[in-house]
Amino acid sequence: MKRSIFVFFLSLLFLILLPNQSNAASSHSKMILDGQELVLPADVKVSIINNYMMVPLRVVAENLNFQVDWNQKAHIAKIEQNSKAMFLTVGKKEAKVDDKLVLLDTAPQNINKSVVVPIRFVSEQMGLSVNWDNKNKVIYLTSPQQNPDPSEGPETEGDSEESLARVNQINYLNHQLIVSIDGKATPKVSTLANPNRIVVDLPNTTFGTLTQPLDSEMAGKLDVSGQSDVSDVRYSLFGTDPDLVRIVVELNNDIPVQYHKEIIGDQLIIDLSGTGSDSQPPVSADEEKRKIVVIDAGHGGSDPGTTSISNKHEKDFNLALALKVQELLLKEPKIEVIMTRDSDVYPTRTERVQLANTLNANAFISIHGNSVLESPQATGTETHYYQRSSSKQLAEAIHKRLVKAMGLKDRGVKNTSLQVIRETKMAAVLLEVGFLSNASDEKAMMSDTVQYKAAQAIVDGIKEYLNIE
Fold first, then answer.
1. 17 domain-assigned
2. Quick check: helix, strand or coil at residue 281?
3. Is the distance from CB of 132 to CB of 209 less than 8 angstroms?
4. Beta strands 165-173 and 205-207: pairing type?
């Protein structure tokens, strides 16, 4: 009980002190299409929302020559080029592209009476390649049949902007350095002593839409406070002729560096889990028996989430199911359950992540409902994890039971980059229990009986992962 009170006040403290992550910064960035600068209206700005480039919908229509139809009543934009069509809905992360559902990293928004959409997503879905020059604040768009040189001056072999790979994100989580790269890069990894360091060089690579800050010298550092195994993670544009990005990870101990390098899709992963001592603090025998599980009811408060076919809010379904999971977990003597919210309030995604990381939880489960109003036939249950094998193991343990409990279509276990499962340090999953936009799914999801079955499935999956009888 004392711990629950502590967590409640900790959550309040997060709400008061932490900045709002959804604030948008704007700039008069340039856009270049196939080597030609697009002349944007004086009042048009490129917005950066949750580290993603957003442009007004009219730019897509007037400057990229896509056909755009705007449904004011439904707040849905239809964007077409030739035979390709996509549907984007303001405030929703689900898009429909050629009759397929696609999950966005950030939703279209309405800012100052102007609808803004993620330029990278829209452009790439329409066949354009997108690059971002962070130093000069220029967006380069390239048609598939073109191969322009966006740099000034004559092109020399191997040094055009188009030939460069681009680092878009650098993270250090769960003893892993994770670098997201656009383009082909051949990493060179070396180690140094006194102090022990691992050096990652990326030749013929520059910074793209980097989500971490860069100073005037094109260098920066990650915040690694709370990471027991490393003292510093720094990065810089180490060379410009040719371009080279260098990342240095400085360790906290004198044990020789051990690492495993792996490239998965567009991500370079340097796993240091074999280096250093256990990152978990010592605990008493009693504490060791109790595993901490964080249950996250998605959205809440000012953020209703998506909308059901009968106009119910996703946040209410998420909380109802989360409270039933809590009820069942409270009966488990070897599990201590912590809620990110147990009422209609809105902790930000960053606050949810920080709460789980601060508690050094063993598992994090985020509960959500899907919705694509323009595709009411979409149905089923899907489970998301991000990269870590522990997260995949937890996802699979819960998913197989949740699909059976819900009786809906099995949409599979998916590796997806979502903040609450990407930035948490423990095994973490996000459950899309069903489609609130589907009448049959909604009926099941809103049933108390089915919710208890789903809650029991989630608890049983957690117990399997934690190896609790």
1. no
2. coil
3. yes
4. parallel
Assess if residue 9 is contained within a domain: no
104 and 55 together in one domain: yes
CA distance 137 to 164: 16
Is position 300 within any domain? yes
If asked whether residues 353 and 440 sit together in one domain, one would say yes
Contact 398, 99 (CB under 8 A): no
Q: Which domain holds residue 181?
A: 165-271
Q: What is the total count of domains within the chain?
A: 3
Tokens of 331: 């009966």
The H-assigned helical ranges of 269-331 are 285-289, 314-329
* C-alpha dist (Å) from residue 354 to 10, 300, 348, 419, 429: 10, 17, 10, 11, 16
Q: What does the pLDDT look like over 78-96, one tens digit per residue?
A: 888 777 888 888 888 888 8
Cβ 307 vs Cβ 314: under 8 Å: yes
31 and 134 fall within a common domain: yes
Tokens of 339: 């809620």
Return the DSSP state at 266: T
Q: Compute the CA torsion angle 135, 139, 140, 143 (nearest 10 deg).
A: 170
What is the C-alpha to C-alpha distance for residues 78 and 63, in angstroms, rounded to an integer? 16
Structural domain contains residue 13:
no
Task: Render 326-359 in DSSP notation, one character per residue.
Answer: HHHHTT-TTEEEEES-SSS----HHHHHHHHHHT
Instruction: List the chain residues with pLDDT less than 70.
Output: 1-29, 35, 39-45, 49-51, 61-63, 65, 132-137, 144-162, 254-256, 274-289
Handedness of CA 49, 51, 52, 55 (dihedral sign): positive
The helix (H) or strand (E) run that includes residue 403 is helix 389-406
What CA dihedral angle connects 143, 146, 147 and 153, to 10 degrees? -100
**Which one, of 47, 105, 56, 51, lies nearest residue 77 by Cα?**
56
| Residue 143 φ/ψ, nearest 5 degrees | -70, 150
